[in-house]
Prior knowledge:
By secondary structure, the chain is α/β, with parallel strands linked by helices. The protein has one domain: Aldolase class I (TIM Barrel, Alpha-Beta Barrel), CATH 3.20.20. The chain is 42% helix and 15% strand. The chain has eleven helices and eight strands. It has an eight-stranded parallel barrel with strand order 1-2-3-4-5-6-7-8, surrounded by five helices. Strand 1, helix 1 and strand 2 form a beta-alpha-beta unit. Helix 1 (17-31) runs parallel beside helix 2.
Amino acid sequence: MMRKYLIAGNWKMNKNASESVALVKELVQAAGKQSDVGVVVCPPFTSLASVSEALADSTIEMGAQNMYFEKSGAFTGEISPEMLRHLRTSYVILGHSERRAIFGETDALISKKVVAALANSLKPILCVGETLAEREGGKTLSVVETQVKGGLQDVSADDADRVVVAYEPVWAIGTGKTATPEMAQEVHAAIRGMLTALWGAEAAQKVRILYGGSMNAANADALLAQTDIDGGLIGGASLQSHSFVQIVESARKLS
Length: 255
Ligand code: PEP
């Protein structure tokens, strides 16, 4: 089955609102009309409103980097799914390794967020991945399986085409160390198998599985050419238009 590539930029805690608009204008200019590849930018919360406006006439979509699962109320500092939808947000990154490691997010919490995202017409990008110690201890697949099953436990096969999984080995994030295409494909194929066990083969074939971890213009071709790599979640290389657009171009060539 032909899955459309998805290239998503995770800007993390970078770019104020004016810097965000400047970057997004460059992206719209370079890649804002094509529809062969899904392109998503995930700016910080403070830039969502202005980025949304700047994306209005383009094919580029917007994602958030996190959210809370409740509708509204006494949750100081949190943002609801409905607030994101109001700003025409289409995607939301959930369970990023930085949220798991720095902010103590558990699979149980992430699962609630995934359910709330889908209920509010937001497509979750569920991040999973092992640490270096876990890989060296031969635990990669069991760690990833716990995260995939934990995050998707309350999601049904009917929602498979709206779910995105991002495999992001923690040791490759922001380090310049990338999994080889073969290493990444091995885990992506295993994730496809986990999704098959959960939802059946037809639904599992619809899920886009992105690779994340020091993906850049130089290594994107080889990673994206792998059978089960359906796109990328890009951190550092998404902060400058030329490197991000080159990754989009890699995906277009393979489409
Ligand atoms: C990320 O944090 O999602 C990521 C993949 O970062 P980087 O590309 O900088 O490794």
